[in-house]
Amino acid sequence: MLKAIRILQLEHGQTAEGESDDDSEDEDKAADAEELDLELPHVSFRRMPCLAHTLKLIVKTAYVHYDSLIVKTRHLVGRIRKSSVAIEKLVERCGKSVITDCTTRWNSTFHMVQRLFNVKSSINDVLSEMGKAFVHVTT
User: Fold this and answer.
1) Distance of CA 37 to the CA centre of its chain
2) Do residues 59 and 123 share a domain?
């Protein structure tokens, strides 16, 4: 994105402030636009950061305060997902499975924790049935 904006600025003769370097370049651009039957308003190309990416960075910073809890949650979900028997029994009990988070999706960690809370009683039942040394999920 940054490189694309720089290229657009260079091609259109704009400085960082969005102003043209030379009046003759404006005339050339206008002539090119007339040849293509286009009207190009004077628009400066500026970099606008992606809102979703900015939101992801903010949420990631907030997750630092809950890092140990999130690591434990990932570990528990990972162990459950590795066991096909546990997943099968969990789906039989509540019709849902646990989900893992994805680093490129800003809200996936929230969805992972939310799903864990939604199926916690079923997870506790399944894990106690299986006799595994899993930690029971508590609120």
Assistant:
1) 40
2) yes
Structural domain boundaries enclosing 13: 2-35
pLDDT at 5 over 90: no
Residue 40 in domain: no
Q: What is the pLDDT of residues 14-68, one digit of tens each?
A: 655 444 444 455 555 555 544 444 444 555 656 667 787 888 888 888 888 989 9
Is residue 7 included in any domain, yes or no? yes
